[in-house]
Predict the structure.
Amino acid sequence: MLKVSNLSFSASDNDAKKTIINNVSFEVNNGELMVITGPNGGGKSTLVKLLMGILPADEGKIILDNEDISAYSIDERAKAGIGFAFQQPPRFKGMTVKRFLTLAAGNNLSESRCCDLLSSVGLCAREYLDRELDGSLSGGEMKRIEIASVLASNHKICIFDEPEAGIDLWSFSMLVKQFEKLHETKDRSIIIISHQERIIEMADRIMVIKDGAVSAIGTREEVYPNLIKGESHACMAEMK
C-alpha cells in the first residue's frame, strides 16, 4: 500500500514562492488502479514526481508498505519498488534499447524477453533492440520504450504520466490492453495520469487534482457519475 500524508511543494516564481502541491493526502491499495486527472496545470505531474523523488517535497510523508520513503533518493525509491514513466522520456545517446530495458529490469534480460516487452507496447520488437535512445527515435517511440522499461521489473507500484501522449490510436489501444492485463494480475498497484476516457473507465478509483489540491477522490460512480450514464463528452471537458 502507498500512503501519502500532507504532501506539499512550492517553487520560486520571480523571487516569490508559489504553492504547486498543497497538503495532498491519499492512499493506493495493493493491486489498485488509480487514475489521477484534472485541469491542465493543476499539479498532477508535479505530484507524481514528488512520489518518485524527482522533486523534493517541502512537507509530508510517503509510506510504501509501512516503509517511510520520504527521505529516499530516486534510486532508493526504485529499489523499494516504485517504477516511473515520464510524460516526456529522457534520451540517452550511446545506450541501446536492449541495454536500457536490461538496466530497468535489474538483471540480464534475454532477447526474447526484450522483444515481448517491446511488442506489448506496440513496437516491432527486433527492429529496436540495437537502436540507440537518441534523436533518431520519435517521441511516440521513446514513450513506448519508456513504458516497456517500467513493465520490465516487478515493481510494487507503477506510475505512468500521461502514457497516451504522442502515441497513435493503434498503439494506444495496445497500451490499454496491456494496462488491463497488468491490472488483472493484482500483483502491483498502478497510478496513471490521464484525461482519456478509456483509461479512466479502467480505474478502481479516480483522484481529481485542481490548483494543487485534491478536489475529489472516489470510485468512477462517485467522481464522474455521468461516465456511467454515457454522458462522457461533458465529463472529459470538465477534466481538461
User: Anything to note?
Assistant: Residues 28-57+73-239 form a domain with the Rossmann fold fold (CATH 3.40.50.300). DSSP finds ten helices and twelve strands in the chain. Confidence is low (pLDDT under 50) at residues 229-235. The first strand starts at residue 2 and ends at 13.
